[in-house]
User: Which sequence fits this backbone?
């Protein structure tokens, strides 16, 4: 299995595999911004909509391949705010249900963290569904829980669920508060 960073042309080339991964992630119950059942065309449109941001350097996408199949992904969203060039949001960390339990989530998370350091990002943040399996991954990787927002987003079944906010200082970033 290899993990590669996708440029905008590569993202467009792999949009169907990325869409299939997004559909699988939603169908398996993960709350990543979509309701089930997620239509493949809607998932493909979401990924296609990220290509311009990738080209502009505002969004970075990594894909994990097992042969020709995309089995995992993670992205970083860079802020466009003048006062936020030191931070990025970790988004859409997804592993196909057939590939879970083999350390791929940890590998993708580490890949994004290392890339953030290389880009001189010192603070990463994310949100994830409270009490989800993802919370264990983030805690075990040294992320700090900042708090919980009740009724933040609907899970794939449409039920409002709380989200937990996490952050992590990377690359020797010094906390100020």
Assistant:
């Amino acid at each position: 299995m290899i993990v590669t960073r996708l440029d905008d042309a590569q993202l467009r080339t792999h949009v169907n595999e990325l869409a299939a991964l997004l559909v699988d992630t939603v169908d398996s119950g993960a709350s990543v911004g979509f309701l089930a059942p997620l239509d493949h065309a809607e998932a493909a449109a979401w990924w296609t909509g990220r290509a311009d941001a990738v080209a502009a350097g505002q969004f970075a996408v990594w894909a994990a391949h097992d042969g020709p199949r995309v089995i995992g992904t993670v992205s970083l969203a860079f802020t466009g705010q003048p006062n936020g060039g030191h931070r990025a949001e970790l988004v859409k960390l997804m592993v196909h249900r057939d590939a879970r339990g083999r350390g791929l989530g940890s590998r993708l998370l580490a890949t994004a963290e290392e890339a953030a350091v290389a880009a001189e990002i010192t603070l990463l943040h994310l949100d994830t569904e409270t009490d989800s399996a993802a919370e264990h991954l983030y805690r075990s990787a040294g992320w700090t829980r900042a708090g919980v927002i009740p009724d933040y987003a609907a899970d794939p079944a449409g039920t409002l669920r709380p989200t937990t906010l996490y952050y992590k200082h990377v690359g020797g970033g010094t906390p100020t508060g």
Observations:
- The chain has a mean pLDDT of 95.
- The radius of gyration is 16 Å.
